[in-house]
Design brief:
two-stranded antiparallel ribbon; 4 helices
């Protein structure tokens, strides 16, 4: 079973409060955009025609990779509130 197939089995309960926030000003001048490449859920993207990075929290695997690799400190990450977030179904 591939990683993508395992991720597809996970269940997510989305909270109205985002547990990931980006400081867009810090992201704007980032030449590396490592967050876009490192996120296993592929939740980060660059808005076409702009330099803006955006994140969609609804499929977050809560691994914290984005927080770890952002050398500019633009990612504010916290665990989702109780009862929300990812529920792993496959080891």
């Amino acid at each position: 079973m591939t990683v993508d197939e395992k991720i597809a089995l996970d269940a997510f309960r989305q909270d109205e409060q985002a547990h990931i926030r980006l400081d867009v000003a810090k992201c704007r001048d980032c030449p590396d955009r490592v967050c876009v490449r490192v996120c296993p859920g592929r939740l980060y993207s660059v808005v076409e025609g702009t330099a803006e990075v955006k994140v969609e929290c609804s499929g977050c695997l809560e691994c914290g990779s984005c927080l770890t690799v952002c050398v500019r400190g633009a990612v504010e990450w916290s665990c989702p509130r109780g009862g929300f977030g990812v529920r792993y179904r496959q080891g």
